[in-house]
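Structure (tokenized):
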């Protein structure tokens, strides 16, 4: 089994697409105005409008209400990403800091309040943990 994608549901697809194009450096594929996908090397990040949830059942999702998931992106240089994104991100949660399990990490929220973590393994143990992963 392969983890294929994460889909976020929102009332404003265009607003999230704009931020995630800036964050990922990847242009979204837009097969429909209510749907976008970012094909990243390790996974696909999808964004769907709340109108699309009816396709999955009445109680399948509510846009912009999830506070239990952190989208995590491993990056080569957290400090450089912080400088690059400082003008784009409006809601910073934590500036770059080293966390106890050995990652250098920064956290911020997208316009819907979803939490994003950009991290870089910096200790020997953390680098070992991530060796061989995409």
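Design, position by position:
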């Amino acid at each position: 089994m392969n983890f294929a994608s994460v889909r976020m549901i929102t009332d404003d697809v265009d607003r999230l697409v704009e931020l995630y194009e800036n964050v990922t450096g990847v242009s979204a594929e837009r097969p429909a105005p209510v749907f976008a996908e970012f094909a990243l090397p390790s996974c696909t990040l999808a964004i769907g409008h709340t109108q699309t949830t009816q396709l999955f059942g009445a109680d399948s999702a509510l846009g912009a209400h999830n506070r239990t998931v952190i989208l995590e992106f491993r990056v080569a240089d957290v400090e450089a990403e912080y400088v690059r994104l400082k003008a784009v991100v409006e809601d910073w949660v934590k500036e770059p800091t080293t966390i106890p399990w050995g990652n250098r990490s920064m956290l911020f929220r997208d316009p819907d309040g979803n939490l994003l973590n950009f991290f870089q393994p910096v200790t020997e143990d953390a680098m070992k943990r991530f060796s061989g992963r995409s």
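Reviewer-requested clarification: The chain is about 20% helix and 35% strand. The longest strand covers residues 91-98.
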